[in-house]
Amino acid sequence: MKKETLVLGIETSCDETAVAIIKNGTEIVTNIVSSQIESHKRFGGVVPEIASRHHVEQVTYVLEEALQQAGMTMEDIDCVAVTEGPGLVGALLIGVNAAKALAFAHDKPLVGVHHIAGHIYANRLVKEMRFPLLSLVVSGGHTELVLMKDHGSFEVIGETRDDAAGEAYDKVARTLGLPYPGGPHIDRLAHVGEANLDLPRAWLEEGSYDFSFSGLKSAVINTLHNAKQKGMTIHPQDLAASFQASVIDVLVTKTVKAVKEYGVEQVLLAGGVAANKGLRTALQAAFEGMEAELVIPPLSLCTDNAAMIAAAGTVLFQQGKRGSMDMNAHPGLDIENF
What is the pLDDT of residues 198-232, one digit of tens each? Predict the structure, then answer.
């Protein structure tokens, strides 16, 4: 009798074509990611049409490589999980249709997964979840504080009102003439610079766990322009350090405050910006001596990947949730009503 659950995950929400196989929701069997960064770099950001075309070209190859690397066939797989949303609609459609075709051809159950739920569940591949928990989700399109009281239960207690943190990083990087994606370049510069510029922190109204980074982004641009007009020199590394200090200060302070208010057992860091060394270091320092356990995924599980989709999909599969052959891409999918 088979004791293990094997879920194959497919992720194509943006500019990575990824397929993974996960055992029992916690163990990576194989995790293949084909990145498109080089194709989008010259445009300074992701071009949706180009992303979709790359997914069409790559998804079959990545799928075959994942199965081959695992030494498995579709007969070994119990369920197919796929990112249903949010994301770029054209990119999502490639993954959704590939998953539907695969599930139909091999008579396997199909489950749709929320992309942000996937990022949160990437942490389960590191350490088992303990509820209630709080997840700080920081990516190019999302900055959220998500409270979970059980598997599959998501309550957004704070979210960005304008630019997400990752989006602000990319825009500031572009202002500094740094290549896409800008986050890693800002992070690197920040570690050799000094946070000696007075940049704003958007705390918003009292008691709010929401975020706002649009004003900070504008302040950086204005600081550069004003200095140029006055003939002053601002070192890029100092501007990067000051910008990053402002972002991290708000993220960490609000997370710590929410942990205390909601009395959570565990804090999970999730999303592409979770790879930021400055943020990781600041969170580790903030949670030293605190009762809540801090879990930070390895860099390979911070950016988009299919292992996280299969991990989240395993929970849905075990809860008896199933998708159908009329599943569609939902670029604005809401995690609370998912």
Answer: 999 999 999 999 999 999 999 999 999 999 999 99
Instruction: In whole angstroms, give the CA distance from residue 246 to residue 242.
Output: 6
Indicate whether 1 pLDDT > 50: no
From the list 187, 192, 147, 158, the residue with the least C-alpha distance to 170 is 187
Confidence at residue 337, expressed as pLDDT on a 0 to 100 scale: 84
Q: What is the pLDDT of residue 2?
A: 60
Residue 294: C-alpha distances to residues 155, 249, 267 (Å): 19, 17, 5
β-pair type (133-138, 266-270): parallel
Q: Among residues 195, 7, 40, which one has the least CA distance to residue 113? A: 7
pLDDT average, residue stretch 99-107: 98
Q: What is the largest CA-CA distance in the chain?
A: 76
Evaluate whether 194 touches 238 at the Cβ level (below 8 Å): yes
Residue 212, CA distances (Å) to 1, 138, 163, 207 in order = 52, 12, 7, 14
> Which tens digits make up the pLDDT trace of 282-332?
999 999 999 999 999 999 999 999 999 999 999 999 999 999 999 999 999
Nearest partner of 287 among 255, 249, 248, 250, judged by Cα: 255
Phi-psi region of 4 (alpha: psi -120 to 50; beta: other; left: phi over 0): beta
CA atoms within 13 A of residue 190's CA, in its CB half-sphere:
25
Take residue 188 and report the two structure tokens written for it. Answer: 């690197």
